Amino acid sequence: MSSRANSIALGSRLARPLRQRWQRWLRRRLPSAPEVILTQRRLFIFPSAAGLVFLLMLLVMLVAAINYQNNMAYALTFLLGCVFVVAVHHTFANLHRLRLRAVGLDSVFPGQQASFAIRMTAPGKRRYQGLRLGWESADTLVDIGPGASITVSLYHSVTRRGWYRPGKFLLESRYPLGLLRCWTWLDLDFRALVYPQPVDPPVMSRDGGGQSDGLLPVPGSGDDIADFRDYRPGDALRAVNWQAWAKGQPLTTKVYGEPESDDLWLDFSSFSSGTTEQRLSWLCALVLAADASGDVWGLRLPGYEIAPARGEGHRDAALQALALYGMDSDS
Description:
Elements: H1 2-29, E1 35-37, E2 44-47, H2 49-68, H3 71-93, E3 99-103, E4 107-108, E5 113-121, E6 128-134, E7 140-144, E8 149-157, E9 162-164, E10 169-173, E11 180-186, E12 192-194, E13 225-230, H4 242-246, E14 252-256, E15 264-267, H5 276-293, E16 297-301, E17 304-309, H6 312-324
Parallel strand pairs: 4-12, 15-16
Antiparallel strand pairs: 1-3, 2-11, 3-5, 5-8, 6-7, 6-10, 9-12, 10-11, 13-14, 16-17
């Protein structure tokens, strides 16, 4: 057993330099770009498994025709050989000159599926059929009419905050007979913004200075109930209006109020404990809660501040600041 494990480890070490050289060659030949036109340089074509069986069958038929000097066997062999050659042209043409462009930018939380949209355009009068594309496997099948454009969304799971780049994806075609496989690897410079994972925070003060007129309006904190809103998954159980629900009314969550004379500040330094990632996750939950309450609020991070405001754009700017905190803004 140990000898087998050593053999596998040795094989892996020997194969690693080959994989690295292959990846370097692939990056040079197929560089990253926001838009790509599939030229001959970017396309690869090779017989599929069915195509290899087909070629083997032709070889057997040719040997039999030579052995028996049978003209009909010669004719059938050469006819099928011509079909294979014509299939090479059609399979290659089913990807050639296709235009692909990355469109849109998705923003998600860790554990969700980020959407990466591709605009595919068919030039001229050619119809592109049976195109498969995807990451781990080419699992999305599309057809494009002559001169038409379609938008295709591919999905990839994300795990950590910051900019996420999924890397190259596969585009292939086996049209029309399945005897050949024409493919390419594409890196359309996709990226998705991944926010911190929102986590209910411990009680914190309104500002970072320790002097406070009240607590942040987070469901489940504070003393005075200002309003009720529809229940959302993740709300603190202690903030749920169980009395109304027991009477058969819709499930709602208590929103605790605060003095309107002061702006809310969500401050990184207001927490007395927690790692950087924990504080960012707590602040993310507070940003979502403050936005849902409709209050005016601001965000303070070490070396960065967003002035108090409200609205969807303000929320997205704060979430982006949390997602990219401590990171290169383009990494």
